[in-house]
Write a structure and sequence with these properties.
- By secondary structure, the chain is α+β, with helices and mostly antiparallel strands.
- It has two domains: 83 residues, no CATH class; 132 residues, Immunoglobulin-like.
- It is built from six helices and nine strands; from the N terminus they run ααααββββαββαβββ.
- It has a five-stranded antiparallel beta sheet with strand order 5-4-7-8-9, with no helix packed on it. Strands 1, 2, 3 and 6 form a four-stranded antiparallel beta sheet that branches.
- Helix 2 runs antiparallel to helix 4.
- The N terminus is likely disordered.
């Protein structure tokens, strides 16, 4: 099955050459047949001296030149068609490369990291990095901590609906540049989560602006009691 598919791919690559050779062979066979018939008809009333005339006369050379010209024209047309088709595919690839490559790609370079105790709260941080080749003019962070799995659509549609949600502007982010965002969790909430009576979910969304428009990266993470680390439950790119 694999060999058959490879054979079909090879045939599709050389289909234009095969078509050109077939047309050339067809035209050459047809012209030679017509020429032979004409020579036979012309030689019937002629004398033996005329029959000994060289077959490579000017008329024969002219006919073969016309045949070669037709073949070359057919090959040129096929090559031009293939060239135009290749340029169209190249234009599509270049457009896709421009849209994907020449823009910022902001995302986390790791998970949530515990830093220290800050009074009655625990301080975590997450590092965001621009993996693209174009700087992001501004990065806006939206974050909230909840006890249940958050609904990302409701949070995205109304940023001011929940008091525990806050926004922060990280500013521009150059290619390869990293910035940290801090998240604070109350010790009491953390204790209930570790006892299994509650859960801790962190909803975080990074909206970044650039010259070509805007995009975003969001994720929802949950505190795992066994590992005492946050596990990403859902991630998406806008």
């Amino acid at each position: 099955m694999i060999l058959a598919m490879e054979s079909l791919e090879k045939l599709s690559r050389y289909k234009f050459l095969l078509i050109g050779l077939f047309l050339a062979f067809f035209l050459l066979s047809t012209t030679i047949g017509i020429r032979s018939e004409n020579v036979t008809n012309e030689n019937k009333p002629q004398s033996s001296a005329e029959n000994s005339e060289s077959p490579f006369s000017l008329a024969v050379i002219k006919d073969y030149s016309e045949i070669i010209g037709v073949i070359l024209e057919a090959i040129v047309i096929l090559l031009l068609y293939k060239t135009v088709k290749d340029f169209a595919e190249l234009a599509k690839v270049s457009k896709l490369q421009t849209e994907v490559r020449f823009r910022p790609w902001v995302g986390p370079s790791g998970g949530f990291e515990f830093l220290r105790e800050d009074g009655d709260k625990k301080q975590y941080s997450i590092t965001m990095k621009n993996f693209g080749e174009v700087p992001a003019s501004n990065v806006i962070v939206t974050c909230t901590v909840t006890d249940s799995m958050p609904d990302k659509l409701s949070f995205m549609n109304d940023n001011n609906k929940n008091d525990t949600k806050n926004q922060f502007q990280l500013g521009p982010l150059l290619p390869g540049m990293e910035k940290r965002y801090w998240v604070f969790i109350e010790n009491e909430r953390y204790r209930r989560a570790m006892e299994g009576t509650s859960n801790i979910f962190i909803f975080i969304y990074f909206l970044y602006l650039f010259s070509g428009g805007k995009s975003g990266y969001g994720m929802i993470s949950q505190l795992d009691r066994k590992t005492n680390n946050f596990v990403h439950k859902e991630m998406w790119i806008d």
